[in-house]
Each structure stands twice: as structure tokens, then as C-alpha cells.
Amino acid sequence: xxxVVIPAHxxxxxxxxxxxxxxxxxxxxxxxxxxxxxARYPMLLGTIRxxxxxxxxxxxxxxxxxxxxxLELPDDPLPEAVTRGDEPFLIVGGxxxxxL
Length: 100
Hints:
3 helices
């Protein structure tokens, strides 16, 4: 099982609390993990990835094992610690700011 943490607003939308646990068929990649997440929680379709391009939405970042995986290729394998369930895959809302 892969542990996934999603932002609070998406937990409310999916009507879940805390970490999610997902089973991914075959090789665990960002694409297969997000496919499994959207299949289990269809109300999240389009909230993490664009409906048409399937690219990560702006202001969302992916982290695991203290690494930013946001710019990794969607079909690159996830870190071993994530696939074993030792470390969670984090989907984090980005914060933009400017000067005052």
C-alpha cells in the first residue's frame, strides 16, 4: 500500500481524513498513483491534474522522501520507501507571494 497525503481542501472534497492508502497495480509511478487516486476518489478528477493534458495543476507540488518530485517525469518510478509504505507521497498546495 502506498500512503498519500493530500491538501485539506481536497480531503474535504473527497470526504476523507488523514492519510490515504492506495494499492497501485504494476509499477508505481506518479501517473499510476494518481490514476489509482482518481479511480478511488472520482470527485478529485481534474483537481490535481488537468482533465485534458493530465499535467500537474499549477500551485500543486509532489514530495516524497524529502525530495521535490514535481518536475520528475510522470512515468519515473516512485522512491522505494514510498512503494513499501515507509514514507508517504505528499501532494502539497504551493503558496505564491510577492513583495509588499
